[in-house]
Predict the 3D structure of the following.
Amino acid sequence: MEIKELIKKIFEYGKTQGLEEMEVSYDNSNSFSTKIYKQEIDSFKQAETDMLKFRAIYKGKMGNSFTEKVDEDSVEMLVNDAIENAKNISSTDEVEIFAGSKEYKEVSTYNADLDEVAQIDKINFAKKAEEIAYSLDERVSQVSAAVYGDDSGYSILANTKGLNLSKKENIAYSYVGVVVKEGESIKSNYEFACGRDFTKFDAEKMAKKCVEDALETLGATSMKTGSYKCIISNDVMGDLISAFTGVFSAENVQKDLSLMKDKLGQAVASECFTLIDDPFLEAGLASCSYDSEGAATTYKKVIENGVLKTYLYNLKTAKIDNVETTGNASGQSNIAPSNFFVENGDTSLEDMMKTVENGIFITEMSGLHSGLNTVSGDFSLLSAGFEIKDGKKGRPIEQITTSGNFLSMLKEIVTVGNDIKFGLPSSSYIGSPSIRFEKIDVAGE
């Protein structure tokens, strides 16, 4: 049965059971991944999944249900389960099925050519990345990962208020990881690529960057405890922002769980810092014309020249604050950004380093989800990087702990770099350039 006909039958049956308003979300996805080990296929996965999510208002309560069995036999089950779920809801919050926005901006999230790439070409790409990584330096003792994967999906969001939206999207990703060894020093590193254009994936470039960065860290030692001028690399800065994304959620603000509470219109960062949520970013991997509630997405500068301009809203939180939703609903009840990034500055990383006589360049922070507090902004994280001496990158550093406060650091930004980079596929919507801070506290030797 055609999916649109199935949705129609769900609504028809739901009406006979006394449901007031109903909504169906349908998702179909195809995924492929392969991992290479010593030029042989170590793992190979190909899967297609279907999911129907149903929600409806029954006697003033919102009930939810879902199934992976997308056929006519699921109609009654979806409706009846939603009704039972609604009966067990104790919340008195007002619920709503959204009728839709006035207009939606067209967004490109699908490249048909990507779905036509032959499997053998995907496998050979991962093989090539592994082969090149081994060939670059005799100190490469192991290629721990050589992976290629892609996902393609089609979704529909429809409800009984007339909303009828659909989209196609796809993404490809690849990463290579290496272990390098020299004497007693053993280090590891990874490098990745992601996007929608397979022709722009470069196995040699990816492998070379991975190996070079790993070799640079051989022989790393600690450094003396103290407060240092600091540059945080683009990818680590992106990870930090990702960990603190929740502070911009209106829900967390309303629940007093955000350090940005009561700071709208105030300076929360240096004037050179602008943080953008752009669902229309060209080639952005989180670009979208509507959110999970069917509301149109919006471009916004969350922080502009250091000033906090807005929180991120879904329908429920927008109603509480008597504002329009920003189109940031994610899933059933979450709030999340789309393409979320720090706007590029005009200074290169090299030029930033020239302004630091004695400091540290941080290229790794671990324990981001256990070593920081998103309510207070405090963090204490195991870190690594390089000493900055006389304006140049010096010896590699490890076995240090860096600590500070996220909000305080934002106010101590000295320079924003021009080398914006977005994260791994799991956080590919978060991006930042390298950023120089006035100081960071380091606990070392």
About this structure: Residues 9 and 169 are 26 Å apart (CA to CA).
